[in-house]
Amino acid sequence: MAQIRLECRNVAKRFGAITAVQNLNFKIADGEVVSLIGPSGCGKSTLLNMGSGLDPASEGEVLVDGEKVTKPNEHVAFMLQKDLLLPWRTIRQNVEFGLEIRGVPASERKAISLELLRKCRLPDFAENYPHQLSGGMRQRAALARTLAVDPAVLLMDEPFSALDAQTKMVLQQDLGRTLAETGKTTLFVTHDLVEAIALSDRVLVMSQRPGTIIEEIVIDIPGRENPMERRKSPKTGPYIAQLMSLLHIGEEVH
Amino acid sequence: MGSELSNPSTQRMVLASLALAVISLAAWEWGPRALGIPQFIIPPASQVWEEFLKMLTRDRLMYHTGITAMQVVVGFVLGMILGMAVGFILGMSPTAEFVLSPYILALQIAPKVAFAPLFVIWFGYTVYPKILVAILIVFFPIMINVLGAVRAIDPDIVRLARSFNASKVQIFRKIEFPASLPPFFAGLRIAATLAVIGVLVGELVGGNQGLGYLLTFGEGAGNTPMVFVTIIMLTIIGILLYGAIVLIENRVLHWLPGRARRAS
Ligand SMILES: Nc1ncnc2c1ncn2[C@@H]1O[C@H](COP(=O)(O)OP(=O)(O)O)[C@@H](O)[C@H]1O
Ligand SMILES: [Mg+2]
């Protein structure tokens, strides 16, 4: 098996008397894309926050490249549903934000950001301000900013859930291609079952709070770099049905 | 700006504005006479102009205007720096805000100009009481706006910066400071007009310098044109300060939606 990039060993997180997640155990290998799916409030964001080193685990340990995560580090970068672009910076300056904080010289920053804006299909908007871009374009810029620091592991928390259905599919396609090109290891939180199936190698299913992983589904559909085609695959339907039953979707309907 | 003036609809608005000025001046000159209002109640524009020319030499008008303007600018700048500093400190320290907020609220509600006599008792008929009133009156709108701006920053933006390993100084320079600028400038605009009021009240309370002094003098002498001239000079100081702020604001906040489009 390839090198393990991200690992959770018996991780639990409590907020006062509330246990958000417990008994979390999983491994993500180099270059793998793994989706995390589960009911609202089951602790998906909590898990990602521990992975990014912003919040400590109450129990157990989160490891990145075999090292215990105790604080924010350069191996991990996250992306949220909100683009978090700074309105006073141009798109290029926003993409360079992380590099700037890490003290990368301006010329080097510019080369990296322009290259990523090209990859994320925003080359003509480098000197525009965020308010001049659509929601989908802004989220692409946020992806470029996340990739700019060249993290070993990407943590994505429902990055496309605020977008309309079509924009979302286009961005999924772009992400699928970019992840394949860069070979980035990714943990991807989503509510969208089809998105999880189309984008990932594996899907982890979490239970109600206190959240823990109740099922792991390996997505055996070829062509992970092309989520659009994967959506249309005849194998997708059965995976959706399996996830729906695991999440008890539709059982409450009278 | 240049391209805006070449716009025909803008040109029409400028013309309308100028026409209104001419009509107002004419109404001021001949209106009161037509209505039989005595000149010592409302002196006509020409008489106020003559009085202005006389005051230049007789009352050293520009000297007094300079003193008032200097006090306004010094009070404004010091109040601004203080307001900004305290706004940031309280914004970044919830404990400090919790402990201090009742007192700040009380001081904010207290009418600042009422402190003028107190400051005159403390510092005599010097420039200091006037500057102090200006500082006090300018401080609050700036402090409140900066505090509010720091509070309103999305914590996820700060978390994003922290995930990149940003230091506290970097978070301040790259997030908190720029995020505070739009409300800061809104506070400056309010403060510009307040600063003139603060200094004027200080001068009215006591002293023999500044436009406030000329105002009291004109009142005592029953010289209505002199009072008019002084009011106009005070207004000009306010307009210049306000204009300077708007000019700087347009440069600094060029990225705000609505401005970026105009600039390009
Ligand atoms: N800072 C916090 N303080 C207290 N409770 C929290 C905090 N963050 C999350 N929680 C609780 O932990 C649980 C999991 O939250 P979250 O990870 O955001 O869920 P998800 O992302 O799966 O919707 C929720 O019940 C939430 O109320
Ligand atoms: Mg969440």
Description:
The complex is a heterodimer of chains A (254) and B (264). Chain A has nine helices and ten strands. In chain A, helix 7 packs across helix 9. Chain A starts with a strand and ends in an 8-residue tail after the last helix. In chain A, the strands form two sheets. Chain A has a six-stranded mixed β-sheet, sandwiched between helices. A four-stranded antiparallel β-sheet of chain A has the order 2-1-4-5, with helices on one face. Chain B is mostly helical and 264 residues long. Chain B has two domains: 37 residues; 223 residues, MetI-like (MetI-like fold, Orthogonal Bundle), CATH 1.10.3720.10. Chain B is 83% helix and 0% strand. Chain B is built from twelve helices and no strands. In chain B, helix 7 packs antiparallel against helix 9 and helix 9 packs parallel to helix 10. The termini of chain B are close together. At the A-B interface, strand 6 and helix 3 of A face helix 8 and helix 9 of B. Bound molecules: adenosine-5'-diphosphate (ADP) and magnesium ion.
- Number of helix segments of chain B? 12
Average pLDDT of chain B, rounded to a whole number, is 91
Structural class of chain B: mainly alpha
The quaternary structure here is: heterodimer
Distance between the termini of chain B: 11 Å
Shape of chain A: globular
User: How many beta-strand segments of chain B?
Assistant: 0
Q: Which structural class should the secondary elements of chain A be placed in?
A: alpha/beta
| Distinct bound molecules | adenosine-5'-diphosphate, magnesium ion
Question: Would you summarize the structure shown here?
Answer:
Chain A is an alpha/beta fold and 254 residues long.
Descriptive terms for the model:
heterodimer, A: 254 residues, alpha/beta, 6-stranded mixed beta sheet, 4-stranded antiparallel beta sheet, 9 helices, 35% helix, globular, B: 264 residues, mainly alpha, MetI-like fold, 2 domains, 12 helices, flat, binds adenosine-5'-diphosphate, binds magnesium ion
